[in-house]
C-alpha cells in the first residue's frame, strides 16, 4: 500500500533540490553545473512554479491569456503538462513580451515587460533551479529580490552601520534605466561562469532576445532584461554581483556598500573616501557598460540638517535626539516626501468619486485597509518614534477624504465634522497607518465635535 504524501510534498521536494544545489555551489565556488535542464521540467518543479505564478497574479501577455482563464476554463493541469511536453521535446520557444508604460512620480514612464503565462511558468521553474547556485555567490551587501532578504534588512544595515561606526558621508547612487541597458553578451558570460548546461543558457538568451510588442508593433531587444519578467531580478542581481564582489575584495576600507537591486548607497567616514568611492564606481560601471545618473546621484553629509538621503522609500538623516545620556546625533528614518506623495495619491485614487458604482463607506474602507496595513507594516516599524508622526498625517488625510465622501453622499446628515462622522468612521472598521492613530484620531474628532 502506497504511503500518503503530505500536503506540502511538492514544496518539500523543491526545497530539498534547492538545498542540494546551494550546498554544492557553496562548497566549490568554481564549479559549473551542466545537468540542470531536466530539473526544470520535473513535475514537482513545474507544479510549485505554477503555484507561485498564480499567487503573483498579473495581467496577460501578448497572447491575451489571463491566469483567470487558465484556472476557470483552460485548466491548470493541462497547462503544466503541455508546457512540460514542450520542454522535454525541446520545442518550447519564448514569446515576445507585452510592453506597458507605467507612470513614475516624476512624470516619466517606466517600461514594464509582461511575459505570457507559459513564459512566466518556465521562467519561474528555471529561476527555482538556478537561483540557489547564484545565491551561494551573492554577497551580504545585496538585499534586493533575494530569499529571506528585503528592504527592511537593507535599511536596518544602514542604521546599524551608522550607529556602530563614525559615518559622516553617504554616496547615494542611481543607475538610469538599469534593466533596459544590461548588455546581453556580458550578462551571459557571468551566467556561464556557473552554468554550463547549454539548454539552460539557450532558455535565458531566448528570453533576453524574444523582443517586445507595443501598440501591435514588434521591436527587437538587443540589450536589456525586461523589467517585469519573473527571471529578470535574478539576472539583474547576477550582473551587479560583479560590483559587489569587486567592492568587498578591494574597497571595503572606503566604506560600507548597501545595495537593493539597482539602488545602493555607500556609507563613508571621510569625504575623501566618498570621492574615491565615486571614482571606483565610475570605473566599474565603465566595464559593465552602465552609467551613473549625475542628476540623482549625490554626495551627502548626513549631519547637515538640510540634507539627508532617500533610500527605499525612507528619508535618512542624523538629527539631534535627547536621550538619557544627553543630546546626541542619531540617524533617523522616516517616509520620504516622494513616499508621502504616493500614499496621498493612492488614498485619493481609492476615495475618488465613482459615478458608475454605488460605492458605500464600507466598500472604500474594505479597499483602503489592506493598503494602510501595508504602509504601517513597512514605514511604521523601521523607526516608529519618528515615522508615526508622518503616518499620522496620512491618517488625517484618509479621514478627511472619507468625510468629504460622506458629506457629498449624505448632504443633510454630514454637513460638518461631528459625532455622526466619528461614529460612521468607527463603525466602518477603518484601520490606521500610525500605531498612535486610533487615539489621536478620536481625540481630534472629540475636539472638532466640541
TrEMBL record:
Residue span(s) of domain Reverse transcriptase: 83-316
GO MF entry, a single one: RNA-directed DNA polymerase activity
Keyword Membrane in annotation: no
One Pfam family hit: GIIM
CDD domains per UniProt: RT_G2_intron
InterPro entries in the cross-refs: DNA/RNA_pol_sf, Group_II_RT_mat, GrpII_Intron_Splice-Mob/Def, Mat_intron_G2, RT_dom
Keyword tags: Nucleotidyltransferase, RNA-directed DNA polymerase, Transferase
Top-level taxon in the UniProt lineage: Bacteria
NCBIfam families for the chain: group_II_RT_mat
Protein name: Group II intron reverse transcriptase/maturase
Annotated source species: Paenibacillus prosopidis
